[in-house]
Amino acid sequence: MILKLNSLFLMMKASNYVLITSIINTIFFNLILFSFVVENTDVLSASGAVILLSVFLIAFTFTFTFASIVTLISPILLKIFLGVTAIINAMAIYYMANYQVVLDKTMMGNIFNTEYSESSELITFKLLLFIVFIGLIPAYFYIKLKINRLDRGKVAINGVIGLITSILILYLNASSWLWIDKYASLLGGKILPWSYIINTNRYYASLNNSTDGQMPLPDGQFSNTKKMVFVLVIGETARSDNFSLYGYPKNTNPKLQQTPNLLVFKNTQSCTTYTTGSLACMLSHTEKVANFEALPTYLARHGADVIWRTNNWGEPAIDVSSYVKASDLRSSCQGEGCRLDEALLTNLIETIESSTKQKIFIVLHTKGSHGPSYYSRYTASFNQFKPVCRDEEISKCTSQELINAYDNTILYTDHFLATLIAKLESLQSIPSAMMYISDHGESLGEQGLYLHGTPYSFAPDYQKNIPFLLWASDSMQSHKQIDLEFIQQGESHTHFNVFHTVLGAFDFQSPIYKKELDVLNQNISPNLRE
Is this model's pTM higher than 0.90 or not? Predict the structure, then answer.
């Protein structure tokens, strides 16, 4: 009898296989999606129940229709799809449950722009358990089920009936549309496996890895031949809320607070909550970020020496004079900090002094405070705030341990920037300036959120509020006829201040230059222009 039951269990018609696996896939892998609906509606009410039913039907319709189409091509192909996505679903559920990740287009961009050295920090024993019990076991179940008859006609009919029925029910439940529309971006990032499948396609469709085809910006010119250097430091995952320069009670900026000629710009928000989008913004001349050449390409095309040094990734397509990875600098670097962002400072002054160009633009793209392994972003001497979280599953750590580890990364950033400024100060005959701005902020457990990448309209301010600093040497201030003490700040600042401030600092005359976005030209006392 048992053998007979097993035989019946393991053998079925293709139409039944499609229906059963679609139901299992929809329910089993979308519990987080349904939990979100339950948390944001009263499912015991008629309207709440209708919303939950509508969300279920949307998830089921996608799966059932796709499975029917694939089965008409090849049942084996469907089994492979179900097996592979089961394993990926397990990993997705782990990160969604532990880090409140939403798998929208921006998050998929984050994932595909993460190198192995960083992604390996997210591999934990708990993740492996998820893969085994939530991924491999269902995958084995899908493959073990046998299809003894390919009834293509019924598969096709069922697919059409299922699609029409679902659409009809959704139409009759039109009252749920407003709620679904309100949370569309979050729902689209939680529905498995379609969230990562569709949003991966959306992400790659938006990519342009070559400057070929980029629209050139209007020609401009440098108004003088004075040799100058401007260093843009792009921070990673630094939120202004944890900078003592912005009033944070813990002294995370001891060196910068003692640094003269430093401007701290208030009320600065990132344009996105993920690296690639934010870099595109800060290197763009307009808030309507399109396929225009980026700031480094623009300056290089006009004869500037543009040097891009990176310990990170995610920049848009650019043409520069020199593109150097931190790994290529470490052989010439000395000190424990060389395994971190300090490698970017290797032979920096020698590079500036040896340049034959009059305008030198340097970008240092740091790894900064990127999580979840905050404890690995600073050297031992900066482990000042204790105890710290040393677990990649940061939800296991206490709030204080997590914040301490993060604050130590800010303390190290303070050291990095102070070291850079000291180096630039040695260029007494060359006017120099340094701008530091982070790509986005970070959630450290507030409201149950961790890391970053939450859709912008729903992201907390912790993921948007960023530090924005500018230092200018005495010779730079003299050349520009400005005094940083007399510059009055705007009410707010964004990534879009970067492009125009750099052009202004270099005295670059261009039709697209906007004085109102140049922070060195905001409400300067008139007597300083005499």
Answer: no
